[in-house]
Amino acid sequence: MKGLKGKNALVTGASSGIGQAIAIRLAQEGCNIAINYRKNPEPAEDTEEMAMQKACGSIENCGVRSLLVQGDVSQESDIVEMVNSVADQFGSVDILVNNAGIQTESPSHEVSTADFDKVISVNLRGAFICARETIKHFISQNRPGVIINISSVHEIIPRPMYVSYSISKGGMENLTKTLALEYANQGIRVNAVAPGATITPINEAWIDDPEKKAEVESHIPIGRAGTSEEMAAAVAFLASDEAAYITGQTLFVDGGLTLYADFRESWS
Ligand code: NAD
Questions:
Q1: Is 247 near ligand 1, meaning CB less than 6 Å away?
Q2: What ipTM was estimated for this complex?
Q3: Is there a domain that residue 264 lies in?
Q4: Closest ligand 1 atom, CA of 225?
Q5: pLDDT per position as a tens digit, 173-187
Q6: N or C: which end of the chain has fewer CB within 10 A?
């Protein structure tokens, strides 16, 4: 896609699922990719291997560069170190994808403060600090940049039993809009991709259970869950110059889930 070749991209939580697919897709588009992982480097190495295979056929002599960067996005010091390290090693950062995310399930009145804080500190506070540090870098180098936040349909659909997750994604909408407005005149675009139900490890509760999967898919107008690659395609578009005039928007990639599928047939 236009304008992606040679750009330096940092993807958080890129060892699995949607983040992994985004890193692979951006490498295929010619971006150098920094693959963030929280703890275990092995799955991140798998992402790197797959990305280089897809981009160049092999990890050796690949025109696309890759880096593995350890960092827990709930820790401010880790984020500062991660962004600086990517900027030093690549020379700059052009694209940040705030993808890392977690969820916990519990009735809202039983959610402990510690569990609430944990989800917010990864999904929302972490995304903010990553954006803040990357924007500092864009400004210090006087260069344009792109930030893409991986939100969720739960940015707008309330999700009982997942109050911290819903709040984190609702907050992400405002994070996206506020930063987009504040930095638009400095060549910095900020958008979000909001996946619907997607086949990734975060959904281990239903993806391998045909009955539960059918129940989830019955609420999706297109009739099936999405794939990580479909989310990555939207990210690549928003990161590219094809989307040069788009900022402050959330692109829902959800098979129509946010169209209120239960209204497909008349209720009368
Ligand atoms: P996933 O569990 O495969 O990916 C989440 C990634 O975040 C993992 O690689 C994990 O290691 C990483 N991570 C978690 N805590 C971290 C931390 N503190 N620091 C750094 N990395 C951390 O699930 P996924 O579905 O690929 O989720 C990716 C994003 O997509 C999340 O933000 C999620 O909320 C969002 N999303 C997913 C779906 C879906 O149905 N799969 C739907 C809507 C939104």
A1: no
A2: 0.99
A3: no
A4: 40
A5: 999 999 999 999 999
A6: C
